[in-house]
């Protein structure tokens, strides 16, 4: 079985594939989330399989509500340790656990708000049934 090789792509093509802007990719590079990209002839940015996987990871983390600061921490650990994924796993688990706790808290607050709204609606309906003005 042969493994599909991903050929390097330019920034515009990568942005198009991932549904983001080239500015977003450049910004991630500027703040240190992306490793160094290869350039053809000193000007054209090229992204290889590892760059693409890293960018997909960043986008997934952002979609889950992980802050850029937290992603930067993961990127620094990753780069300092020669891009060994196992070195970021403990920090990643810690960050995800914190986000799970925040989501649980938000869900509890929303559930409470929903109950308050339902109860208020019931009270209003009772008042209307009994001929009282609101």
Task: List the main descriptive attributes of the protein structure presented here.
134 residues; three-stranded antiparallel beta sheet; 64% helix
Short description, anyone?
Helix content is 64%, strand content 7%. The chain has 134 residues and is mainly α. The protein has a domain of 65 residues: Multidrug-efflux Transporter Regulator, Chain: A, Domain 2 (Orthogonal Bundle), CATH 1.10.1660.
Largest sheet: 3 strands, antiparallel
Q: Which residue ranges are poorly predicted, with pLDDT under 50 across at least 5 consecutive positions?
A: none
* Residue fraction in strands: 5-15%
Helical coverage, percent range: 55-70%
Can you tell me the overall shape? elongated
Spatial extent as radius of gyration: 24 Å
What strand line-up does the widest sheet have? 1-3-2
Q: N- to C-terminal separation?
A: 73 Å
Could you report the average pLDDT, rounded to the nearest whole number?
Answer: 88
CATH architecture of the domain at 1-65: Orthogonal Bundle
* CATH fold assignment of the domain at 1-65: Multidrug-efflux Transporter Regulator, Chain: A, Domain 2
By CATH reckoning, the class of the domain at 1-65 would read Mainly Alpha
Give the structural class: mainly alpha
> Helix count, per DSSP?
5
Please trace the helix and strand order, writing H or E for each element: EHHEEHHH
Could you tell me the number of beta strands? 3
């Amino acid at each position: 079985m042969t493994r599909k090789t991903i050929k390097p792509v330019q920034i515009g093509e990568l942005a198009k594939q991932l549904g983001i802007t080239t500015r977003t990719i450049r910004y991630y590079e500027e703040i240190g989330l992306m490793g160094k990209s290869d350039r053809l002839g000193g000007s054209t940015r090229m992204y290889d399989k590892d760059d693409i996987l890293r960018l997909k990871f960043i986008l997934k983390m952002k979609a889950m509500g992980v802050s850029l600061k937290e992603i930067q921490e993961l990127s620094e650990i990753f780069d300092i340790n020669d891009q060994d994924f196992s070195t970021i796993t403990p920090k990643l688990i810690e960050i995800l656990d914190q986000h799970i706790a925040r989501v649980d808290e938000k869900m509890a607050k929303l559930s409470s708000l929903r109950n308050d709204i339902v109860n208020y609606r019931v009270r209003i309906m009772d008042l209307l049934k009994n001929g009282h003005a609101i």
